[in-house]
Design brief:
Blueprint: H1 2-13, H2 15-21, H3 32-45, H4 49-56, E1 57-63, H5 73-85, E2 90-99, E3 102-110, E4 118-127, E5 130-140
Parallel strand pairs: 1-5
Antiparallel strand pairs: 2-3, 3-4, 4-5
Helix pairs in contact: 1-2, 3-4
Length: about 150
């Protein structure tokens, strides 16, 4: 019994890490960076598009990608169909940078494991705990790059 209390006390001292390590008990994101990373993982890695948008995106979502309309509707309409067409799509977060209300995720996006993919930078603006604005830029990963530094 004493060991259980020690474990519980230790867990309470570092509650966020214990919650994150306990399946089904993830701590609610607090910082803009945590909000955006939680959204990104749920949206593109777990592919729970509707829940990611419901939980993390504001209703007046402004989109700067020229191929998407503003609002949450186009996101919810596009990505389930994309993932159905590309069931092996892989999105890997390479780095995350946050400053103020802006969060940038540098990621590798591949339609399949064989695809060289694209280096993508997604930039999100967070307001009152919700993602309200999005920009992105992408660059194909070339077969024969001019240097050996890699995209990441």
């Amino acid at each position: 019994m004493r060991m259980k209390w020690k474990s519980l006390a230790a867990c309470l001292l570092v509650a966020s890490s214990c919650l994150a390590a306990t399946p089904g008990l993830a701590a609610a994101p607090q910082s803009n960076k945590e909000i955006v990373v939680a959204f990104f993982r749920m949206m593109f890695q777990d592919r729970d598009v509707e829940e990611a948008v419901r939980r993390y995106v504001g209703p007046n979502y402004t989109q700067h990608n020229p191929y998407m309309r503003d609002g949450v509707g186009p996101v919810v309409d596009f990505f389930p169909a994309y993932f159905e067409q590309h069931p092996q799509a892989i999105v890997e977060i390479k780095r995350v940078i946050a400053e103020g209300d802006l969060v940038m995720i540098h990621n590798l996006w591949r339609d399949s494991p064989e695809d060289r993919g694209q280096a993508v930078v997604d930039i999100f603006r967070v307001e009152n705990g919700k993602i309200v604005e999005h920009w992105d830029v992408s660059q194909e990963i070339p077969e024969n790059p001019a240097n050996k530094n890699g995209m990441f």
